[in-house]
Amino acid sequence: MVARVDIAVRSLRPPRFRPPGKLPAACCAALLVASLSAGTARADQALHLSPVGKGQIRVDGAIGEWGGAPFVRLGDSSDGSLRFALGFDTEALYFGASVRDDSFIRGARPSKREDAVVIALEMPRAKGKPLRTEVWLFAGSIGKSRAVAAVASGGGKPKPARSIEIVEGPLEKGEGYVLEARIPWKAVAGGREFLIGRGAVRLHDVDGRAGASPRVSASASGTRLPPLEVDGGPNWVLAEFLRSKGLGAPNVRSDLVADVTGDKRLERVVLAGSFAVVVGPDIQGGGGYHYMDLPVAAAADVREASLRDLTGDGKAELLLRMRQQNELGRREIFTVSDVGSPQAKRLFGVELRKEVKGGHVEAKLSLSAGRRAKGGARIEVRAGSSSGLEPGALNERPAQGLEPMILPWGKVMGRVYRWDGTRFALEKEEENPDYKPPTHATASTSSGSRESSVLRTASHAKPVGVDDLVAAFRKARGIPKGLEPRFVRHVNLAEDRRLESLMLFGDHLLVVGKGYRGGSGYFYYQLPVAAADHIQRVFTGDVTGDGRREIFVRYKQLIDDVQREILLVYTMGKDAADGGVQELLRVEVRRARGGDSIGNVVALVPDGRHWALRIKPGRAEGWSQGSYPFVAESLDGVQPLLLPWQHRATRYAYRGGRLSVRH
Fold first, then answer.
1. Which of 137, 186, 416, 535 has the fewest CB within 10 Å, making it most exposed?
2. Is the pLDDT of residue 288 over 80?
């Protein structure tokens, strides 16, 4: 039920962080790995890196300059454990460690058969698997051999890397050694992208003899390495965002990488809970983020996610297939969004599947790469299959911002859209050769909310009394005799100036009148509600200026633990098809969960010779700007709730067959 595709920019950069390339000469008096807490590393713990000023760290085998840094411990055995800290600058990764080892194994030619400290690094790339590099740090045997660094790519054999500075020194107390290293990012495959890279550290401890089975203590146990949380960098900012939203690993649905903004550097796009978060070195120097609130209730409602350039501009768009549902049904939508700027822009959206009581219907989607000269990729949508639904069971009405679903029994069999530089324009439409226009009134389901609405008319051969028409309606619809109508109004709704009677029986609106359909017919409309008692109010007012009144219906909608109140506006004026009703507006006017709520103030106010609909934000109970868990826009065809800290009073004016916000 959630509402909008919105995107915001935030900055979580801590005071000590500076964007790469702008680190001051004296970034700090000593390396402070403040974000690392002292203690034993847990499995799959992210590695934190703090900035190092020029000349801050001397790779000399003495880690006195690391004294202000709380070290992280791996292993708790007296015969094999590691304490380490990490730092970085734009050129290199710094590593300082003390190793306790009661049986140090080291030969003339170091290899995986001997003691080592291993730093595993994984760097993303736009296509293909991430680049994996393992840096093996072998301490020297004092007086016999020197420390050596080697690099292994893709799990291969470590090969000596002279560009890596490494020095070992004696451990002041106990058996073991001190190790320092400076690892240029150029020595790491894809090291340019270290700000959104991943990594882990492990102690490779071989006891007894070379080649014996090693005992391994590691900061991560899985095959996917945890992110490198460069202090104040993109991964750190993302982690802070997720923590602030109470989102952990089970809430992360997708973790994608592509170039979506700025230069050719890569960005990380993570879908967690109902959010899509974008971080990268080109967003506020690496210290900011964009986030987009997705129109889903939970992470599992994102069925598919990918990043792909569909517009031909060299920047990837976010492609999502999402599920939305309420107590009346379920649908799936496909959207394409530009997430490369602070304000996200949905470029395309279409409904692909509907599920209602008794069956479902779905369409097929295919994408084909396009050439830049021809305007980007093609999106093709074709009619698919249906089950349990007969032709005419759904009369498609597109939701706001979405292309209508293609139904197997509809006029159109397929549509092709192509990017024209500003939008995905309709390029080709294929008619359905088997289409047959309906010959009777049919059910109508709103694609925005999937709420079933049935329209019917009935007429008699000669004029009859209003009471007779009501009785005929009761009989036709099986309305109990004891059920009295609610919200009865006698106003001019349609046709000439004579009054019609409007009344509500259960969830059916009934219109009858001596001047309506010559006094020989009635019209009824089944409202899109889950239960009749959800209808809270029905009133009328002329907001189109044609002298006839429009019908206003306020009802509640329950979605899990959230209650929404929706205002519907219908007209029976000259633009309504076949003497029925036409929907002019569907807007949310209240939302509540538990004891928290926001209620808008709805009123009809004078506007020249007719009335205008005015909605004011009202007040919030319990919720504040910081604690409100929803967003302020909708993908289900319902105009958004006004928020007291964000919106002003809004007037709706009639134009183009709709009630739209008057600016």
1. 186
2. yes
Position 596 scores a pLDDT of: 94
Asked whether the beta carbons of 124 and 84 are under 8 A apart, the reply is: no
Q: Does the residue 387 lie in any domain? A: yes
With CA atoms as reference, report the closest residue to 82 among 201, 212, 230, 226: 201
The predicted model scores a pTM of 0.65
**pLDDT tens column, 136-181:** 999 887 667 788 999 998 778 899 999 999 998 887 766 788 899 9
Single residue among 398, 415, 437 that ends a domain in this structure? 437
The span from the CA of 598 to the CA of 617, in Å, is 8
First to last CA, the chain: 27
209 and 329 housed in the same domain: no
> Which residue type, as a one-letter code, is found at position 603?
A
Which of 153, 148, 163 is closest to 111 using CA atoms? Answer: 148
For 644, the domain range is: 548-572+581-663
For the record, the structure tokens of 73 come out as: 């411990």
Residue 3 has pLDDT above 70, yes or no: no
Burial 289-306 (b: 16+ CB within 10 A, else e): bbbbbbbbbebebbbebe
Of the three residues 408, 437, 466, the one that is the final residue of a domain is 437
What is the C-alpha to C-alpha distance for residues 551 and 31, in angstroms, rounded to an integer?
A: 69
